[in-house]
Each structure stands twice: as C-alpha cells, then as structure tokens.
C-alpha cells in the first residue's frame, strides 16, 4: 500500500472511514435509502456554509468546475450581465465558462497574486447597472490568496447585485458564513478541504434565487440548476443518475467535520499546520509568494536560487511527498505549492519539513 502523503491542494488525504464509505453496498439512486442520505447530506452542506433556512443545497456529480458551470450557465436571462472579479487561474476558469455561454461580461481583472482593489470594484458596480451577478473566487488556489468576499458582499448589498462565489478550495478550510458575507450562491467539492473525493460537487444558494429560475434560461442539460433544484425539492434525488458511490464518502466526511472535529476545530488545525509549514520553509531560504491574505491551506513559495523545481518535486515524490508545481509563469520561477488540506496533521508537517530540508541540500549540492 502506498504511503505517499499528498501535500497538494486536491485530491487530498482522506480519513479511513471516508475511504471505507466507498465500499458501501450497491444502492439504487431512486430508493428511499438514497433519498434519506441525500437529504442528510444537503443539511450538512448548509451547516458547512453556516447557512440559515433561506438557503438550499444541491449535489452535482462532477468536479468543482461542474458546480461553477451549473451556476453560471443557469442564472442569466437574455441581456443580463455578469461582473467577474479575477486575480488568478481559477478566476480565469470562471471567465472561460462565462465566455463559452456568451454571457455579457464586465471583466474586473487584476494581476495574479494582486489583492483586488475595492475602489475599482465599486466603480465597476456603479458604472454597470445591468450587472445581475458578481462572480469571484474565495480562495484563489493558484496563489493561495483569500479574496475580499465579505467586502464585495457588502458592495453587492449596496448596489443590489447577487454574489456568486467559487468556494471550491475554501469550504471546510476557511470561515464561510454565507449570511454574514451576503453570498447568494456558492459552490464547492468534496475532494478539497472537506476531505472526501473528487467528483462530489455541490451548490448552496438562496431559495429566492432558485425559485426565480426557469428551465429555459438554463443553457446546459446535465448542469441545469433549475433541474437540480426542482428534482431535489420534489423527490430528494438528482435529475440524472449521480455518482452514487461518492455520495456516501461526502456524507461521512461532512459528518467527521460537523460532529467530530467541528468546523472551527478543523479550521484551527489547518491554521496550525500552515503556520508550521511557512515557518519551516522560510527558515530554509524559501521566499513566500504572499505576505498577507494567505489561506489556511495552501502555501506558495519560491525554492532557493538555483534549485531545479522539477527535479526537487521528483525527489520529494520518491520519498513519499507530493506537492504541486506553480501555475503559469510561476513554474518557470521555481515556485511550488505545499498544501495542508485533508488528513494532514501537525506531526505530518514536521516530518515533511525534515525530508524537504534533506532533499533541498541534495539538489543544491
């Protein structure tokens, strides 16, 4: 059995009971047993986002991108505009979806790793009254930055906009209070901070937004938010055959958070692990990409001058540790990403840093 430790931002290390849940006996997705589990999972998703009874959740079979596409392909009537705030690769992923569905766009773009300027954002809102939805990423994973969701939510309240937030790498790792942050719609997936598997995505949205949808305005058949909402509401099921085997691990992972570790406990663990990693890497001469607005679960660092990033990652993988290379131009600059999502604990971080230092000395020598 592989003992590889995934210090990567998805897929993640999972708890044993989550892995065992994959072996659940065969079940029909139109059965009463499935429906009970579906409803229980929906309720747990709402708790994950600190949602009140004005919100409703749905589960989409696919990656986090499938949840984002479900939302963005469904929210708009002809002529309605979206304003996209982006500062990294996953903001650009949202841009790709928006452009594919030809949604009229107000593009508020900032450089990668630049914290969004709220004055620029407010001016864009004031100048574009036709904007219905403001879309952004909570945790921009390509840099590890946490974006100003609460502040943007306040602006959306002031200017009468809906706020749609990609929480794919944030849910379960950051404090997301959809009520406090005025988030109308948000998305995530099991295979990140929640500690389940890829392919179990979900949407949490205000009921009044969902009630306003029509079948016609949804531009995708499988990823229709209208179909997912109406089917879940009427029968506690999904409109098409879901990946049933992934529902059980998602439910168990959410239970682990909410009833065992607690959401605040998990966030605190992630914060402790990130602090250990950042102190250790800095002491070895690695330069942090970000000095502030850092997430609890992803650390982006530049390896010391002269270290070949690809060789370093390969040598670490041989020793049982998997990281990510930097995205885009960052990879050429020797940036790597060390994540502490899922079943990563403090001692795992100390152990990893010992190996990290040994490999760094080897590749520098």
Automatic annotation (TrEMBL):
Molecular function via GO: transaminase activity
InterPro entries registered for this protein in UniProt: Aminotrans_V_dom, PyrdxlP-dep_Trfase, PyrdxlP-dep_Trfase_major, PyrdxlP-dep_Trfase_small, SP_NH2Trfase/AEP_transaminase
Protein name, entry field: Alanine--glyoxylate aminotransferase family protein
Cofactor(s), by name: pyridoxal 5'-phosphate
Assigned keywords, A-Z: Aminotransferase, Pyridoxal phosphate, Transferase
Organism from which the protein derives: Oscillibacter hominis
Keyword Transferase among record annotations: yes
Top-level taxon: Bacteria
Species lineage: Bacteria, Bacillati, Bacillota, Clostridia, Eubacteriales
Keyword field contains Transferase: yes
Residue positions where N6-(pyridoxal phosphate)lysine is found in the record: 192
């Amino acid at each position: 059995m592989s003992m590889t430790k995934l210090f990567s931002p998805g897929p993640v290390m999972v708890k044993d009971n989550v892995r065992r849940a994959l072996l659940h006996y065969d079940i029909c997705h139109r059965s009463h047993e499935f429906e009970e589990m579906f409803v229980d999972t929906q309720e747990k998703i709402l708790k994950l986002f600190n949602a009140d009874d004005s919100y409703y959740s749905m589960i989409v079979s696919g990656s986090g991108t499938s949840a984002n596409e479900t939302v963005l392909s469904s929210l708009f009537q002809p002529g309605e505009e979206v304003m996209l705030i982006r500062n990294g690769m996953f903001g650009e992923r949202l841009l790709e979806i928006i452009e594919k569905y030809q949604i009229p766009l107000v593009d508020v773009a900032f450089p990668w790793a630049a914290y969004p300027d709220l004055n620029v954002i407010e001016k864009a809102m004031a100048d574009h009254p036709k904007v219905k939805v403001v879309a952004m990423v909570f945790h921009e994973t390509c840099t590890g930055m946490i974006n100003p969701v609460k502040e943007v939510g306040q602006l959306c309240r002031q200017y009468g906009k809906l706020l749609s937030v990609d929480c794919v790498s944030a849910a379960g790792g950051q404090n997301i209070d959809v009520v406090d942050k005025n988030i109308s719609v948000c998305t995530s997936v099991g295979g990140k901070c929640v500690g389940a598997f890829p392919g179990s995505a979900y949407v949490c949205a205000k009921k009044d937004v969902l009630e306003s949808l029509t079948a016609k305005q949804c531009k995708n058949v499988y990823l229709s938010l209208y179909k997912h909402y109406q089917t879940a509401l009427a029968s506690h099921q999904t409109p098409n055959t879901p990946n049933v085997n992934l529902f059980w691990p998602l439910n168990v992972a959410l239970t682990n958070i909410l009833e065992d570790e607690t959401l605040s406990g998990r966030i605190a663990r992630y914060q402790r692990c990130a602090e250990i990693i950042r102190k250790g890497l800095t002491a070895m001469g690695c330069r942090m990409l970000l000095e502030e607005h850092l997430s609890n679960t992803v650390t982006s660092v530049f390896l010391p001058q002269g270290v070949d990033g690809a060789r370093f990652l390969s040598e670490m993988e041989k020793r049982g540790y998997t990281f990510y290379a930097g995205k885009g131009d960052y990879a050429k600059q020797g940036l790597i990403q060390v994540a502490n999502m899922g079943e990563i604990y403090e001692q795992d971080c100390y152990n990893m840093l010992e190996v990290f230092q040994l490999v760094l000395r080897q590749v520098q020598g």
